[in-house]
Design goal:
By secondary structure, the chain is of the alpha/beta class. The chain contains ten helices and ten strands. The protein has helices at 51-55, 84-98, 110-121, 143-160, 162-174, 181-184, 214-217, 223-228, 245-256, 282-293; strands at 2-6, 9-15, 19-26, 38-41, 62-65, 74-75, 103-108, 126-132, 232-238, 262-264.
Amino acid sequence: MAEVDMGMATAHTLETPETDLVYDVRGPLPPADGRPPLLMIGQPMGAAGFGTLASHFPDRTVVTYDPRGLGRSTRKDGRVDQSPEVQAGDVHALIEALGAGPVELFASSGGAVTALALVAAYPDDVAALVAHEPPLMALLPDAEAAERARADVRDVYQAKGSGAGMAAFIMMTSWRGEYTDDYFAQPAPDPAAFGMPTDDDGTREDPLLSDRSWAVSSYRPDAAALTASRTRIVIAVGEETGDTFTGRTSVAAADLLGQKPTVFPSHHGGFLGGEYGQAGQPEAFAQKLREVLSPTD
């Protein structure tokens, strides 16, 4: 296991037969206060997206990582697809390497899907999970239409490149309510209207815009395993997300587990503080996360 000092965070590499996972640790291991480490995971977003949020937990040992094949984590299995079950196995290996489980886990977007797969397969790994806006397409009443909308994004990306593909993705994920004929009657959006490049750089490897991560958004959680686990699971949704795609999937995920979603400040990227040029309300978001993780404090 390699280690690189990064100042406040120390980067490590966990070598497995299929991947070399790079993860960052802020704070001591084992944690000095006796509380479990706080893991923050995303997908396809890696550790770089959690810098601001982690900074609001200076009293906690925070661990972030890059999923296999993304960011700094390389693959040795010859594959390019992303699977929640495979990524759950990676997070399980990471928790074992930390030697400080069960952990507390904040997981956002595709990372929340990975986290639900993790708890179903390894229920002793996680004491508390906050799953923020998991994009669980299969749970929607209009799942077939949502799959068609997802395929349209892929097709635009394949035909015109990343700028056009990202514009189509934004159009899909910002649509309010079910995907009706009105949605599909829209023309493909102009990437320039979203500040996206109009030139095609020729690459077609983006996990968000291609079909490489379709297993993530098509995943159906094991409700029986999740409700039987000892993990305290909280499904979270942004107060600004409304009835857009991930708002609807969050409500559906909470309903699957017999609960109501817990409302967090801001939107899908509400914890961001300028990463990727986006900003939410990270201070308020962190305060809400702290309250949810420690409801008796």
